[in-house]
Amino acid sequence: MTEIIISKQQKELSKIIERYAQKDGVHPTAIPSLFFIRVSQAAGQSHGVYKPSFCMVVQGAKEVWLAQERFRYSPADYLVASVHLPVTSQVTDATSDIPYLGFKLEFTPSQILELLHDTEFRTDPKQYPKRAMFVSQIETSLLDSVIRLARLLDSPKDIPVLAPLFTKEILYRVLQGQNGIILEQLVMEGSSTHQINVAIEQVINNYASPLRIEELAEIANMSVSSLHRHFKEITAMSPLQFQKQIRLQEARRLLLTESVDASEVAYRVGYESASQFSREYSRMYGYPPKADKKRIKETYDQVQDTTEQVSNV
Questions:
Q1: By the 8 A CB rule, do 156 and 34 touch?
Q2: How confident is the model over 253-287, as pLDDT tens digits?
Q3: Residue 313 pLDDT greater than 60, yes or no
Q4: What's the pLDDT at 64?
Q5: Every domain of the chain and the residues it spans
Q6: Looking at domain 192-296, what is its CATH homologous superfamily?
Q7: CA nearest to 186, candidates 195, 176, 177, 178
Q8: Where do the H-state alpha helices sit in 102-238?
Q9: What single string gives the DSSP state of each residue in 15-56?
Q10: Which of 64, 70, 178, 287 has the highest local Cβ count within 10 Å?
Q11: How far apart are CA 285 and CA 300, in angstroms?
C-alpha cells in the first residue's frame, strides 16, 4: 500500500516539475532556494559544489561522487548534503521520452537550529562526526510535504506564508530520519561538524589564498591533528584536497565564461605554477585546460545545431 501511495505522489510531483522545467537545465522557481532539474540524455560527469541541500530524484537516476565515495539515488531515495561539498555527479538514467527530473531544496544552518529549538531533538556535541552527505529511503510523510511545497508554484500568493512552513516540515522529516543526527551535528555548538563547517567556509571564501593549516585549525578551535582527522571524516577529503577541488572548479568556470587563457586563470585561482595547474586540471577533468575548453564548446555547438534542426522539423 505504501509503495502505491509513493508512486502516486511521485507521478504528481513529476507533472509539476515538467510544467516548470520544460527544457533541460537547472530551473530556479518562485520559491526561494527551490530548484527543478531536467536532463533528457544520460551524459558525462559534471562538477560542482553542493550547498547544504535536500535533493530528490523524481524520475531517472543519478550518481554523486564525494572524493572516491559514490552515492547513488533514484525515486526511492533522497540525498542530503549538510555542508558545502565539491562533488562530481552524473545522471545515469534519462531519455527524451522519460527525462531525468530532480528536486533540490537548499537550506541554511539557521533553519536547522530553529527546528532544534522548537523540538526535543538533542545530540551529544561530543558524538563522533559523520559524513556530511547521505542517502536515505523516501517515506510518504516526507514526500507529502515535498509535494505541498511544489504545489505552491500554482498559487504564488500563498508562497510567502506557506513555503517557509512546508520547508520547515521537510527539514523536520529529515531530522526524524535515521540520518537526522548529521544535520543536528551541523549546528550543535562544540560539535566537530560545527567546527569543521567553520573551516569549510573559510576555505571556500579564501580558496585562492595559500592554505595555512595552523591558522585554519585555530579558526576552527581545533588542534591540527583533530582538524585533519575530522575534516576528512566529514568531507572525505583533507583540507588541501578540498581547496584543490574548489580551485579547479572555479578555474573551469572562468575558462568557460570569460575570455582568459589558462595561465591567467591559474594565477586567479591561486596557483603559482601554470604547469602544475595544467597537470592537476588534466588529472581532474581528463584534458588540459585549453583542450577542455575547446571540447566543451564544440559539444555545445553540436547540441545547439541539433536543437535547431529538430525545432525546424
A1: no
A2: 999 889 889 999 999 999 999 999 999 999 999 99
A3: no
A4: 97
A5: 2-187, 192-296
A6: Homeodomain-like (1.10.10.60)
A7: 195
A8: 109-118, 140-151, 159-176, 180-187, 192-205, 213-219, 224-235
A9: HHHHHH--SSEEEE-SSTTEEEEEESS----EEEEEPSEEEE
A10: 64
A11: 17
Q: Minimal CA–CA distance to 103: which of 134, 68, 69, 148?
A: 148
Asked whether the domain spanning 192-296 has the same topology as the one spanning 2-187, the reply is: no
Q: Which pLDDT tens digit goes with each residue over 32-70?
A: 999 999 999 988 889 999 999 999 999 999 999 999 999
Element (H, E) at 102: strand 100-106
For 2-187, give the CATH class.
Answer: mainly beta
The pTM score is 0.89
Per-residue pLDDT for 309 more than 60?
A: no
pLDDT-derived band at 188 (thresholds 50, 70, 90) equals confident
Residue 273 phi, psi (nearest 5): -115, 120
The DSSP annotation for 142-156 comes to HHHHHHHHHHGGG-G
- Give Cα separations from 34 to 90, 123, 212 (angstroms): 20, 28, 36
Mean pLDDT across 100-126: 85
Question: 49's torsion region: left (phi>0), alpha (psi -120 to 50) or beta?
Answer: beta
Question: What does pLDDT average to over the chain?
Answer: 90
- CB contact burial 37-63 (16+ within 10 A = b; e otherwise): bbbbeeeeeebeebebbbbbbbbbbbe
Q: What is the mean pLDDT of residues 236-259?
A: 95
Q: DSSP secondary-structure letter at 258?
A: S
